[in-house]
Design goal:
Layout (H helix, E strand, L loop, with lengths): L10 E3 L7 H13 L11 E8 L4 E5 L12 H12 L5 E10 L2 E2 L8 H14 L4 E5 L4 E5 L17
Parallel strand pairs: 4-6
Antiparallel strand pairs: 1-7, 2-3, 2-4, 4-5, 6-7
Length: 161
């Protein structure tokens, strides 16, 4: 037996002001997206914003449903909409943030496992790493590529011929 270690590289920004203008805009769009969340059961509003290669910004928010788990996460809402509307315009970056009662949470809200798997395939289609920003009320973590959030991806399906 060998004991192994997995290292996850990321950047930590102490405030939104430290981000580039492009990343700051994406975080602001994600915060704005929390306002369209439908979360009457959890009262946990999640917003996502993604930037396509063309520069277009697409927002998504979590949508709950009484027939749990019929709802959808903010990340997948944005990703699925972007791909259905602009399939030839790859996603370059995604920002995620949560709020409760209109206030951004002091802790980070990371994409769930299902969203991470969708991000894997989104990145594979683009054939380029996807920049992922995870925000809180103060700090922002930036990951360069989904493998930093999901180091052991499910991607060994047989290739289509």
């Amino acid at each position: 037996m060998k004991k192994m270690t997995c290292v996850i590289p990321y950047e930590e920004y102490e405030s939104f002001d430290e981000l580039s203008a492009q990343d700051r805009q994406l975080m602001e769009e994600a915060i704005a997206a929390t306002e369209t969340s439908y979360a009457p059961y959890s009262n946990f509003n999640v917003g996502a914003a993604l930037r396509l290669r063309s520069g277009r910004i697409v927002r998504g928010s979590n949508q709950e449903n009484a027939a749990y788990p019929s709802g959808l996460c903010a990340e997948r809402t944005a990703l699925f909409y972007a791909h259905s509307a602009w399939p030839q315009d790859p996603v370059e970056a995604l920002a995620v943030v949560a709020s409760v009662d209109g206030t951004v949470t002091p802790t980070f809200t990371y994409p769930c496992g299902a969203c991470r798997q969708v991000l894997v395939e989104t990145e594979q289609r683009a054939q380029a790493p996807l920049r992922i920003l995870v925000g809180s009320a103060q700090k922002v973590l930036v990951f360069e590529g989904i493998s930093s959030l999901l180091p052991f991806v499910f991607d060994n399906l047989p290739e289509k011929h």
